[in-house]
Amino acid sequence: MLYTRRGAPLSLTPDVLSSMKHMPPAYGVDTIQFLAGPSPEVLAAHGQGGHNFLAIPKTMPLVASNRDPTMYEYGAKPSTDQGTYVTIHTGAALVPPEKYMAIIAALQPDLYVALCDEITHDAKPKKIEQTIKRSAKWLDACLNLHSSHSLEGVSGMLAPIGGGNSLKERSRAAKMVADKPVAGFALAGFATGEAPGAERGALLSAAIEQLPANKIRYMPGMLSPVDLLDCVAKGVDLFDGAFPVQVTSEGYALCFPLQPSQPPPAGQPDVESGVDETKINLWAAAYRLDKSGLVPGCTCYACTRHSRAYVHHLLQTNEMLGEVLLEVHNTHHFQAFLGAVRKAIESGTFAEYHTWFKERYLQQQQPEDLQDAGKSLAEAGKDLTRPVGSGGKRPTWTRSDGDDGKKEEKDQAKQQRTQ
């Protein structure tokens, strides 16, 4: 799905979207962000639903999730039986099922996730059990309101499935909603702290094994390409599209190969500029005079019309067009990747594609010289988990012991003042 914030893509206008060769198949919005500015009352007064208000192409399904994959809106206060507390752009608010479904009725999405008592992966067993009961209660309320708002035939509901870090509770939550009259299911609470790979896979399997095979399985949360493939292998059908937006905000252009026959990008991994064979850091001074396209062979608007040097200049001068061009490319590349995944599924070769891509991606994302550089920095006392700065600028690293390298100089100055 196309990622949006408050109903709008971060850098893509409707005309740019309509001209893209690999257009996202669905338009994703976060229901919670329509509590205010615009409110459900404004949407309802405008009429004709979210497609008309947000200028979404009629051929593009609108999917309303219960969370934004790039931020966590829940947990401002503990939820109650009346509703869940969220924090949005206007502050904290209590969201009962009635308010939530008023937003859905105003948006009239093609698919939407029912109200869920969201929790993070580190929730305690008692809290997990409580949220499953509460979400089941709210699901029944949403089903009743779905009928009273005359949404049958207009919007399909996805029943949320929680369970936190417990295999038992994930399975139990799935069993509780498996027979509900819904269009599909939303696997809630993922990408909130669980380890990718075996741990996440086991939690997904515990829930999906209890669900009918002919209904949609949607997984909210931001995932890397490898994580996404792992989830497809477990049976997930629908995902958020936040990854290319996140990469764009950091100044990167995606360049990982999409097929085994595709050659690797030109150039070698560069430790100094933070470049590997999965992405290119356009903030790096190495591209200041580079006249080549962003990614050789890419057919997107940005790559066929503009150079690395130009995008590097735009980023350095904080021009909005820099992120526009990067998001055009990254969305194009990511959608081409998803197209390759769909073709592999259709041809019965997904297992082979999954194995090839995972081995290639992980190998090229951390080449030996980058690993050696990481070890050297760690031995020098650098904390590699704490970048300082914003956007995609190359971070300056803080020392893990809090020493910024100037402690001795400060001590000497203090001693001189006391003499």
UniProtKB/TrEMBL annotation:
NCBIfam families: tgt_general
PANTHER family on file: QUEUINE TRNA-RIBOSYLTRANSFERASE ACCESSORY SUBUNIT 2
Biased composition (Basic and acidic residues): 400-419
Transmembrane segments: none
Cofactors named for this entry: Zn(2+)
Cofactor stoichiometry and binding remark: Binds 1 zinc ion per subunit.
Localization (cell): Cytoplasm
Region (Disordered): 367-419
Gene3D superfamilies attached to this UniProt entry: Queuine tRNA-ribosyltransferase-like
Keyword Electron transport among UniProt keywords: no
Ranges for domain tRNA-guanine(15) transglycosylase-like: 2-361
UniProt cross-references to Pfam families, sorted A to Z: TGT (PF01702)
SUPFAM superfamilies referenced in this protein's UniProt entry, alphabetically: tRNA-guanine transglycosylase (SSF51713)
Protein name (record): Queuine tRNA-ribosyltransferase accessory subunit 2
Organism: Dunaliella salina
Function statement: Non-catalytic subunit of the queuine tRNA-ribosyltransferase (TGT) that catalyzes the base-exchange of a guanine (G) residue with queuine (Q) at position 34 (anticodon wobble position) in tRNAs with GU(N) anticodons (tRNA-Asp, -Asn, -His and -Tyr), resulting in the hypermodified nucleoside queuosine (7-(((4,5-cis-dihydroxy-2-cyclopenten-1-yl)amino)methyl)-7-deazaguanosine).
Self-association state and partner proteins as the record states: Heterodimer of a catalytic subunit and an accessory subunit.
Chain coiled-coil ranges: none
Annotated positions binding Zn(2+): 298, 300, 303, 329
InterPro entries the record matches: QTRTD1, Queuine_tRNA-ribosyltrfase, TGT-like_sf, tRNA_ribo_trans-like
